[in-house]
Amino acid sequence: MSATPTAVTALTDHAAEAAIHAACRALALPTVRAQALPIAEAAVKQRLSHQAFLAEILTAECDERDARRRIRRVNEAKFPRTKRLTDFDVSRVPDLPPATLAHLAGGNWIDAGEPLVLLGDSGTGKTHLLIALGTAAAEQGRRVRYVTTAALVNELVEAADDKHLSRVLGRYARLDLLCLDEVGYVTLDPRGAELLFQIITAREERASIACASNAPFSEWGATFTDPRLAAAVVDRLTFNAHIIQTGTTSYRLSTSRKKGANT
């Protein structure tokens, strides 16, 4: 059965503009409200059909919403600074060929719940990669959070003391990607290590963790103190994982030396 044609009310330009603004406020369409007149004027000049005009104005609303969502996702991730993959010199990391970096930037590994482990000495680009890949994932619409290991453990301990640990664990469980930096930088007490293990176990094969560490896996026992717990953490973070060695040459140190030589 065909729909009954809707009766059209003739409006003056002023009345039509007021009606558009009122409808856009009611429907939460700020871009349509702001762009209706200029897009309508362009449509008249280009002799677009009514359908083409409608497509243009709705596409503008969708594009603006996507842009706002990307910005919101990046802000929610709480990255400490801005880092982009385009700013990373991939030639510094022989273990990271351009094809592998492109695959990681695409984010399919996140959808598959696969871990990413970045291992290397201080200044070799681990945090840059961690933030840049996390930013790419957030801009693709994924829920991402960056946190250092020490800060996460402190948050978990405080939540446990305040009797709302389950709420905090639930918040981290909803993330598509957890970017965990500075694994192995500080020794964790048994309670903190066990709470961190809960986060890691809850995400195993379901949601991705990307972590960065300056210590090889063989030295993680110094961080988790309990050898069995350290082995369990390594086992979960390396199963089906992408493991990237960033090397031993500090980019920051070499850059400082070059600047010193040129002065």
TrEMBL record:
SMART domains: AAA. Keywords: ATP-binding, Nucleotide-binding. Residues 112-247 form the AAA+ ATPase domain. The keyword ATP-binding applies. It comes from Rhodococcus koreensis. SUPFAM superfamilies: P-loop containing nucleoside triphosphate hydrolases. Gene3D superfamilies: P-loop containing nucleotide triphosphate hydrolases. GO terms for biological process: DNA replication. One of its GO terms (molecular function) is ATP binding. This is DNA replication protein DnaC. Belongs to the IS21/IS1162 putative ATP-binding protein family.
